[in-house]
Amino acid sequence: MTETWLVTGGAGYIGAHVVRSLQAAGAEAVVIDDLSTGDLRRVEVPFVQADIADCELVADTLRRHRITGVVHLAADKQVEESMREPLTYYRRNVVNLMQLLTAMAQCEVDKLVFSSSAAVYGMVDSAQVREDHPTRPINPYGETKLVGEWLIRDQARATGLRYAALRYFNVAGTAAPELGDLGRTNLVPMVFDALARGEQPVIFGGQHPTPDGTCVRDFIHVQDLADAHVAAIAALDEPGAGHVFNVGCGRGYSVREVIEMVAEVSGRGITPRVGAARPGDPAMVVADTTHINATLGWRARHDLREMVNSAWRAQPRQLSAVRT
Ligand SMILES: NC(=O)c1ccc[n+]([C@@H]2O[C@H](COP(=O)([O-])OP(=O)(O)OC[C@H]3O[C@@H](n4cnc5c(N)ncnc54)[C@H](O)[C@@H]3O)[C@@H](O)[C@H]2O)c1
Predict the structure, then answer these.
(1) CATH architecture of residue range(s) 4-171+219-247
(2) pLDDT tens digits, residue range 159-187?
(3) Average pLDDT of span 10-37
């Protein structure tokens, strides 16, 4: 029988890619999304517009669609906002997860893939971060993701829930123009946004202990990330499965390198302005991907050029059409 997966937040940037990867792997998907940041035009599968806080409605959806498992992406994700509104973040990222786990337990749905984040690590003290690196998140957003991992682990111990928590690194690119990132918080869209306003992008800090002085991050193509969910789902057939995986490329790109790639792909002359470093911004955060490579046989296939190029092609016409 074909498996049917419930994708919470499936109208969002990453969730819409996950739906497509599930379909490509022969599974069916149902999306539940409150459209707080999502876009209904991304959804081409059965859709329930709801806040996942609504436990009864989630349970009804699980039963009605005979759901095999849940990919849980629905969350708020803005670091700055989380510092201003911690209660909102704990409610929407932690309390809502409790509601979802309650509905899953009621309906005996026992497989879960959880969107976690490299934000759980906070300040890192090694060139590449393994999953067993100490987790010391430095903002409420990262804390809610870490608490989410703990909640899921404890529920798994108590009930036999099988799970994989995926710690995404910096997500970029798109598999199709209509699925592009509409947010403006990640580096590549932020640079595009500056260009659209006729401004130069700002680099936060040029004196970090890195080869070119700018921060180094691990960028992962959203298509590769979506495929990692399918690989993680396959691992949940194993009874007692409980995994935490880094999902990144395993190599770092500096902020300056990313901006240079945008300049190359867009044909725009870009002269970034170097501003003050942001307090608490780690110089370098790069995934050690040994665990996911070895356990799931998954590895990233797309490089930075493909990420920037696909994102650029998904830009509104007025921006990408202007070549200087
Ligand atoms: N984009 C990144 O770089 C990144 C990095 C690490 C982790 N993540 C995590 O990945 C997940 C998806 O991120 P994204 O970039 O696709 O963001 P997004 O904002 O595009 O998608 C989130 C989706 O969840 C929906 N949603 C939010 N709260 C909801 C609720 N209570 N009930 C129902 N739907 C709700 C939104 O409407 C949206 O469609 C999030 O959990 C985020 O924390 C993202």
Answers:
(1) 3-Layer(aba) Sandwich (3.40)
(2) 999 999 999 999 999 999 999 998 888 89
(3) 98
Q: How far apart are CA 110 and CA 133, in angstroms?
A: 28
What SS3 class is residue 310?
Answer: helix
For the structural domain made of 172-217+250-286+302-320, what CATH number should be given? 3.90.25.10
Centroid of ligand 1 to alpha carbon of 74 (angstroms): 5
Distance 43 CA to ligand 1 centre (A): 14
Q: Cβ contacts of residue 168 below 8 Å, gap of 6+?
A: 14, 115, 116, 117, 118, 220, 225, 247, 248
Residue 126's pLDDT is what? 87
* Annotated catalytic residue 141: yes
Domain ranges of the chain: 4-171+219-247, 172-217+250-286+302-320
Q: Which of 141, 163, 168, 253 is catalytic?
A: 141
Q: What is the pLDDT at residue 183?
A: 82
What is the Cα–Cα distance from 264 to 261, expressed in whole angstroms? 5
Q: What is the pLDDT of residues 102-143, one digit of tens each?
A: 999 999 999 999 999 999 999 898 889 999 999 999 999 999
Q: Residues 44-73: what's their mean pLDDT?
A: 98
Residues with CB under 6 A from ligand 1: 8-9, 11-15, 33-38, 51-53, 73-75, 77, 92, 96, 115, 117, 168, 170-171, 186
CA 39 to ligand 1: nearest atom: 39
Q: Among residues 92, 65, 63, which one has the least CA distance to residue 78? A: 92
